[in-house]
Structures are given as C-alpha cells and as structure tokens.
Design brief:
One of its GO terms (cellular component) is chloroplast stroma. The protein has 536 residues and is an alpha/beta fold. 35% of the residues lie in helices and 20% in strands.
Length: 536
C-alpha cells in the first residue's frame, strides 16, 4: 500500500511570496500568503487539515500541544479548514475534552483582544475519539469520523504521537492502514526518545518505514524550535563579523550548557530508564552543536542543512570514558529545607547508577575545528536553570596592555542564552572612564524582552506549524539519528558494562567537582550560568 507523501511546493518566481522569506521581509499577511501558496491553497483546492493528537489525555498534550495549536490559531497561522482530534484510551466526550483543553489555554500578553471569542472558536474545532492504540478497528472508526468532518475536501492528516515509544509502531501501523488520507498527505510527528541506543533506534526506524516514507516522519526535538536556536544560523551566516572568526583560528573552546534547578519530581521511574545522557545530551545538545559547527549549507533548503549536520556529526571523534564525568544528585538541606536525593524517589531503585548529571569533552576532526574542545554539560538539581551556548575566543596576540601596563586581558566571549530570558551578549574589554588606565570587562547585549515587545512563541508552535507546512529543516532525519547514536552508544555501553559509579553532588549545587577538572584538563573554565546581568 502506498501512502501520499508531502505536497511539493512549486518553484518560486520573483512575484511569489516565497521570495519574501528569502529577502527576510515576512509580515504576518505575507506569512499567510506563503502558507496558502505552499501547502493549502484553500481558495482553489478547498483542502482541510485534520490534526490527531494521539495520547490526548497525557501531560504533554495538555501542557504543550493543545496550547501551541491554539496559539497558532490565534495568530491566524493554521489553514482555513482544520479540525483537531484527541485520541486516547480514556473515555471522554467532546465536551469533556474541551473543558480539559480550555484550562490550559492563554492568549499572548500583547494580544488580549477577542481572546475569549477565539478560545471558543478554537474549542469548537476540537473533538475526541476514544480507542485502543493497537486496534485497527478503532482507527477505522476514527477514519470514518475524520471523513465526516472533512466533508469531501482534499484531506491532509497529521498524527502527533504523544505516547510512550513502545507503542509508536502499533499506532503508526493502525493509523496508516486504517486512517491514512486517501487524497492528500499523511504525516506523523514522533516524540523522543527515538530508541535507547543505535540498535533500538535502527529497529524503530525500520519498523516505522514499513508504513511510512522518510518524508512523512517528523522526529521532533523541541529544542530545535527555540527562538535562539533558530537564530543561530542567522547570527553566524548573515553577520560578517562572526563568520570569518567561526573556526579554530579564533575560537578557543565552545560550551553547551543545560541546567535544571529541580530534580526528577515524580518522573524518576521514567527517567531511570534513560538518564541525562540519553535525555538531553544525545539529542538536544548534540543537535545544537551540529547547527553551531556545521559548514555553510548550499541553501536554506531542509535537505541541504541536514546534509551538513550529518557530515558534522560523522566528523566527531569517538567519545572516550576519560573525557566524560557523570554524577547523581543527593539530598541536601539548605535554608532549613531538605531537598530529596535522586534515589529518595520511591520509583527509583535504591542502587541506581543512572546519571542525573554528565559532562563531556568532544572534538571535531575536520579542518575548521581541529583541536577545539566542545564541552557539554547537562544536569538536574543544580544551582540554576538555563541553557546556553558559550563561545570563548583566543587571547589577543602580543597582549599590548600587558607589556605596557602589566594588565592581563580577559578573552572575548559570545554567549547565546537559549532559555530562560533569551539574550545574546558579547563580552569585550574596554577602558574605565577616568584619567588613569584601568580596563574593565563589559557586555554588549541583545536582550530579547527589552528589544522586542512581541512574546516569543513556544518551540512547539514553530515545530507544529512546520510539520503542517511540510518544512523539515528543524526535524531530525534518520541518518542524523544514526550518526548521533553512533557517537553515544559505545560510551553508554561502557558506562553500563563497567558499572561506573556516578559522583554524588548536593541538590542545588554546581554539580560534581570532577567536571571542573575535566574542563581544566583542556584549559577551560566553565561559564557561570545565570550570573551575568543584562546591564553592560
């Protein structure tokens, strides 16, 4: 059986809205023109999009997916004809689904007008269908209901799998054999984790491809939808001051930091099956590293960008155990409050060796990055919450001010704060005003909340819209996934086979002491997450 692939857009001419994207001139009205020209063309084809959230009663659907869909509707970014279906085993009516969804919906801070009306309109487009995840009969019933709402229009169908990975294949099989679109496209969004290692990931991919083509599978990593990650290639490839310096000649090291100031908080049972390396480093941080370090793509086409990411991932030197530090948080009393340790969670085995913290030094064996350490750090129950890319540049050759005044200059540093409180700042040396010669280190800052009045969209909004429009640039291709797992699988197996004991660190601390020794091994000092002010 064949299943329709994504509709291909016609080549853009000088008059098409697509060129507005290339020229960087994209207003809200232009975005809607592009949307209709590329995929929907609702004025002529009368197509409709049916979005089925499989696992609609779960936390992810309630907290992220439905709110993101409403935000897209509020901004007029969804097609003219669309319907949203919740699908899960839980018994629920349409009205009960709408009550559940309504509790999670909010409007943009800067756009409160007609909020209640828009919410009501959106909720009237939401319906519920109860069924088992492995029942073709139940998906046939869903198909019948979808057709009733599609009313003879060209039907495009998007299935969002907000479910555990062990039932991905069952749902895909049932959806594709019993509820696939007969005259439009069918796409499936798959949430991580995409396996636990190379073998299980490859097995999952093979199983999905029994029913789907590669261009129908949208593997979502929500970090790729974050505004500052999206801005990374713009910062690099459209600013002459950065691109010539983006190499070993000028950059001393790069740090990718992910920090949470809370523990597993009831998710210990799930987390213990994966650990911080699988949960954060193999996907979020490695994807950011690939975008940061890849060569200039031929174009901004999704395949050209993903080709460069795959090349970069395949250039990373195999990880060595001596270049990795793992840790696990323990209980700690601070300010009279006792914070629980990881193994205090009743769903976690008392003898668990699962890391809640990991730091690693990676090296890229190519001409651009030869010898530059890329240091990753990710952890739970640390002193601060945030995610950053920190680029530390080399020392100024000659150090004129040391020779003349005995002063040691700080190195320049570019910091891209992904979350929270998004910002980009460049640390520079400058003279303190006055008659004497005194140097100071200051920040040149682009603080998004100050510079832009518009609220930054949630990552799920961007990624859902891209999936509907067939834009794959921010989704992970199967060979990307293979390359990522090929890097981390040998390390994970070695950690598990040797039963490496993680270093304990207090809840709310800066993590294991050994992580600082790892950085010092390569003449690096970790950036102090969350300490910089927005003031210069």
């Amino acid at each position: 059986m064949e299943f329709p692939s994504a509709t291909k857009a016609a080549p853009a001419t000088e008059e098409t809205p697509l060129n507005k994207i290339k020229d960087g001139i994209l207003s809200k009205s232009s975005h809607l023109e592009v949307r209709d020209a590329v995929n929907f063309d609702t004025n002529t084809k009368e197509s409709t999009v049916s979005i089925t959230v499989v696992g609609a009663s779960g936390d992810l659907a309630k907290k992220k997916i439905f709110p993101a869909l409403f935000a897209l509707y509020y901004e007029d970014c969804l097609p003219k004809h669309f319907t949203i279906f919740g699908y899960a085993r839980t018994k629920m009516t349409d009205a009960e689904l709408r009550i559940m969804v309504s509790k999670t919906l909010t409007c943009r801070i800067d756009k409160r007008e007609n909020c209640n009306d828009k919410m009501e309109e959106f909720l009237q487009r939401c319906f519920y269908h109860s069924g088992q995840y492995d029942s073709e009969e139940h998906f046939m019933a869903l198909d019948k209901t979808l057709k009733e709402h599609e009313a003879g229009k060209q039907s495009n169908r998007l299935f969002y799998l907000s479910i555990p990975p062990n039932i991905f294949v069952n749902v895909v099989k049932c959806a594709c054999t019993s509820a696939s679109s007969a005259n439009g496209w069918t796409r499936v969004i798959v949430e991580k984790p995409f396996g636990r290692d190379s073998e299980s990931s490859a097995t999952l991919t093979r199983s999905l491809k029994q029913y789907l083509e590669e261009d129908q599978i949208f593997r979502i990593d929500h970090y790729l939808g974050k505004e500052l990650v999206e801005n990374l290639s713009v910062l690099r490839f459209s600013n002459l001051i950065f691109e010539p310096q983006w190499s070993r000649q000028y950059i001393r090291n790069v740090q990718l930091i992910f920090s949470e100031d809370f523990g597993t908080e009831g998710r210990g049972g799930y987390f213990d099956n994966y650990g911080i390396i699988r949960d954060v480093m193999q996907n979020h941080l490695l994807q950011i590293l690939a975008l940061f370090a890849m060569e200039t793509p031929v174009s901004l086409d999704a395949e050209d960008i993903r080709n460069e990411k795959v090349k970069l991932l395949r250039s990373i030197r195999p990880l060595q155990l001596e270049d990795v530090v793992i840790g696990q948080y323990k209980s700690h009393t601070k300010g009279g409050v006792k914070y629980p340790g990881y193994i205090d969670d009743k769903t976690v085995p008392r003898d668990s060796l699962t890391p809640t913290f990991a730091a690693a030094a990676l090296f890229i064996d190519n001409a651009r990055w030869d010898g530059v350490p890329f240091l990753m750090k990710a952890g739970k129950a640390l002193h601060a919450r945030g995610a950053e890319i920190r680029v530390q540049f080399r020392h100024v050759p000659g150090n004129l001010y040391k020779r003349s005044y005995g002063m040691n200059l700080e190195t320049n540093e570019l910091v891209i704060r992904l979350q929270p409180d998004e910002a980009i700042y460049l640390k520079i040396n400058n003279k303190v005003p006055g008659l004497g010669m005194k140097l100071d280190r200051s920040n040149l800052i682009l603080h998004y909340a100050t510079r832009y009045s518009k609220e930054i969209p949630d990552a799920y909004e961007r990624l859902l819209l891209d999936a509907i429009e067939g834009e794959r640039r921010l989704f992970i291709r199967s060979d990307e996934l293979d390359a990522a797992w090929s890097l981390f699988t040998p390390l994970l197996k070695e950690l598990e086979e040797k039963k490496v004991v993680p270093e304990l660190y207090p809840y709310g601390s800066r993590g294991p002491v050994r992580s600082h020794y790892l950085a010092a091994k390569y003449n690096v000092r970790w950036g102090d997450l969350g300490t910089e002010s927005h003031q210069a």
